[in-house]
User: What shape does this take?
Amino acid sequence: MKWLDRQRCLMDFTLSCVWRRKGKNLGFLLVYTLIIFVVCSVIFFSNALRRQADAVLHDAPEMIVQKMMAGRQELMPLAHQEDIASIRGVRSVEPRVWGYYFHPATQTNYTLIGRKDFRHGDDAVEVGQGVLRTWGAVQEDKLYFRMVDGKALDLKIAATFSAATDLVSADLIMMSQATFRRLTGMPDQFATDFSVRVRNPQECTTIAEKITGIVPGARPILREEIVRTYSALFNWRSGYMIVILSAAILAFCISAWDKATGLSAEEKAEIGILKGVGWGTSDILGMKFWEGMTVSLAAFFAGVIGAYIHVFFFSAPFFEHALKGWSILYPSFRLRPEVNLFELAVLFFLTVVPYTFITIIPIWRVSVTDPDLVMRQG
Amino acid sequence: MRRSSIYLGFSLSCLVALGFLCFIYPHLSAEQYDRVLAEQKRVVRDLQLTDLCLFSEARYTRNLSQADWHAPFQDNPMAFDTFPSGSLVRPTVLLADDTP
Amino acid sequence: MIELSQVSKVFNPGRHNAFTALHGIDLSIKTGGVTVFKGPSGSGKTTLLSVIGCMARPTTGRIFLDGTEITGLPERFATLTRRQTFGFIFQNYNLIRGLTVLENTMIPAYPTGRNYQEIRQRALELLEKLKIESKVPMKVEHLSGGEQQRTAIARALINDPAVVIADEPTAHLDTELSMELLEIVNDLKNEGKTILVASHDPLIFESTAVDRVVSLRDGKMIDQETPR
Assistant: This one.
């Protein structure tokens, strides 16, 4: 109890001292908070996106088979469909007919998908929400395309993908396969690639090897590899945010170091006074400990809570620009909130603890000086 | 009011808020996110999609996992030719594994 | 009872700028009463006070406080003794700028682990007794010299020390304020406190409140007198 009373008194004193230089200290706190906010946002965002990708792509085709020629992807002849289907263990082989469409007016890339069983007929499309947002003038629910031969084609928007699926469907324009072939000029006996379903997922590798033997230039891509690609993608340590941030963090470290270590003459004199009126070295270190702790803990809390709200409630609007990059279209999605406590703990130990330490260390030297200095200053 | 009381009150409410956000809110909102996830999975299954629609500026970023071997992937985060997605994105595992 | 035996203090010993501030002082001060150390500046008054007050260690010699030796105590215990036994009023008050009168008064009590409300109550009582209760929420840099000194006195008394040490308390005060200070000193004396004052102000050492005057010159005691 006595210990607690003492610590709280030291805290009172420290807070009063911090408060008398509000402007400077609040400014510092703001920068500190901002850094934690951004770092924490990156961690939250990339982890949540990685988890989301993991979960969503779990239902991706078990295997995609592309055809390569001279190091480039080629159209896949439908003739190979039977060959692959006859491999033991293959449940189904389905040609995927898809491609990209560049819309010059808005400088946007869209993904076209041609479906055999498209429900809305040959002069209609089903589009993602992102298409509606970016296409520009959508008149009478129609999209105007420029076909491969230069002629115009207008297709009615018959349906849209639900906004909830934006993360995977934002840029999709789905149409019948006939329309797709007319629009892009893809010949009838070809598809973009095959998606292969297997009976036993453990046989994927064996089947993939067999496929490369049967289809010349085949390049099978396994679902496992797709998921791994996305896991590697959101590895926050390799993110450019961290690279850019490292400069800011470094600058912050310098200022924190300077602020914490450079004791002003005034501070030194005050420590002398405290010693003179009966404070011991441990009391002064305790007081400084609370100074470092209160400032960095406040920044930590504010930064982490802010990052949580930023990422999970507002879907990280500050990162949208960065992720968007040169693309025009950006999906709107909400990430499932989930916090990795280990990472929070790491962040805590990388921010709060070092700052507290660099506040205490320079005091050590000053606080062991003889208290009679304060008498001799008279 | 003591300053330390104000500060401790602030810290405690932050801790409670953080605890709520970390442990309780994810459960409260789980159903809603499960629904969204189920719908996304349905689309992925249905349309046999392989990638997230995050970077649509080029085909090797739109369909990361399907990219060509020669696609201009960046292997260091300061690479600027398809900045910034190119610098966010590492070479796919496929590419790394299959390098001759 | 404070006893000094053969106390010397050398600053920067063994170096070319070595300076002996006190030469073999033998002195015994009774509990209670006002003792004034007088002498020109540089005579060792302040050094003597800080040696007695456990602020500096004597180079040689021993000091006893109520029969217990306090020379050579480890830092922790020296701090404890200083906090519990002595209250200091510094020449230039040494208040902490930016903090209020109340906060400044409470500072010496913070490390004691006493209950906050108790400390606060004690501080308010002291400030009331010293007639600056109206300045309690003010920051110390906005006070007049006399008020600052009263704050410093309240701070010195917060831990209820047996001995109050004041270094040149009238240095920054005019006559009227000095007389008021002497009244305060007299009150403290009547409460049974031992008061040690370093001063070369005749107003102090000629005052009737003073029980004993010790003259110092060049770090040596030259004579002792008792005014009455």
